[in-house]
Write a structure and sequence with these properties.
single chain; mainly alpha; two-stranded antiparallel sheet; elongated
């Protein structure tokens, strides 16, 4: 989508005042950011989309700029954002790379990961040994 088409959509969305009815928040329901959800009204989703469309519109200019860090700050400090939401998106950092070319850092196993493996295996072994001892004891008691 070119910049003109994006600007047309942005202009249409900005014509209406949605802020009074808008509600938007990103929350975690589990143990981390991989377990997140959005709670939002229709107007809140439209305002969120508006901010993302503005970032898309300006991304080419940010990529061409000479700044070391080119980011597009999002206007999510508004009244329509829930103060209790657990995840805030502060800015968009545009990149000019195809997804398959983005290199991910390999995951390095930490000492906590190693300890967790050892703890789980130990707990399973203790449970198995306890079950065997219990069965043997019951069998001896019955006989």
């Amino acid at each position: 989508m070119n910049k003109k088409n994006l600007q047309n959509i942005i202009d249409k969305l900005e014509k209406e005042d949605r802020k009074e009815k808008a509600y938007f928040g990103i929350f975690e329901y589990g143990g981390g950011p991989d377990e997140s959800f959005i709670k939002a009204s229709k107007e809140g989703l439209e305002l969120f989309a508006l901010e993302i469309l503005k970032a898309a519109r300006d991304s080419e200019e940010l990529l061409k700029s000479e700044k070391e860090e080119s980011v597009f700050p999002l206007g999510f400090d508004e009244d329509w954002i829930d103060d209790d939401c657990s995840t805030y998106i502060q800015y968009v950092e545009p990149i000019d790379v195809i997804r398959t070319n983005v290199k991910q850092e390999p995951y390095m196993e930490t000492w906590k990961d190693k300890t967790m493996k050892f703890g789980c295996i130990s707990a399973i072994l203790i449970a198995i040994i306890s079950a065997i001892v219990g069965i043997v004891t019951i069998v001896k008691w019955v006989i």
